[in-house]
Amino acid sequence: MAIRNIREDGDEVLRKVCKPVEVMTERLSTLIDDMFETMYEANGVGLAAPQVGVLRRIVVIDVMDDNPLVLVNPEIIESDGEQIGPEGCLSLPGLQGDVARPEHVVCKALDRDMKEITVEGEGLLARAICHELDHLDGILYKDLAIDGLYKVEPIDPDEEYEEEE
Questions:
Q1: Concatenated DSSP letters for 46-59?
Q2: What is the pTM of this model?
Q3: C-alpha distances in angstroms, 42 versus 35, 39, 70, 79?
Q4: Which of 14, 17, 122 minimizes the C-alpha distance to 73?
Q5: What percent of the chain has pLDDT over 70?
Q6: Which residue numbers are catalytic?
Q7: Measuring CA to CA, which residue among 130, 134, 88 is closest to residue 105?
Q8: Are 79 and 107 in contact (CB under 8 A)?
Q9: What is the pLDDT, as a whole number, of residue 66?
């Protein structure tokens, strides 16, 4: 496994529509492993293949619920409700913006073994699914941000956190 370079806003690959995966090759399987490693290293909860420069319809998501997801050729087949909240993106470091997303989604996809799966998500998982699937069509969350973007301080995972009383 290897940590790959995350493409940042301005890189034209982030604005392209990705191609479907027809066959899971060893190369694509390695890509999936690398995407997880890259995402974890960057403290993200999701990563789409174009973010590492590969124009294939593959995303990985882990919202820290002990259920890391690989979604190949994903599509949202059902959504309802609404949530508005802050989003960030590994391709736009140090920025966030408030985005309206469905509260609940049902996503049909293939897993890494090319077996059909259905994933149902609410809250953060629904937001992550929508965000990552947008990447596959060249859409960035900044395109959907309600009041534009604002700067945020990156979280240092090695820093001690003290709660205020």
A1: EEEGGGGT--BSEE
A2: 0.91
A3: 11, 5, 18, 29
A4: 17
A5: 93
A6: 132
A7: 130
A8: no
A9: 82
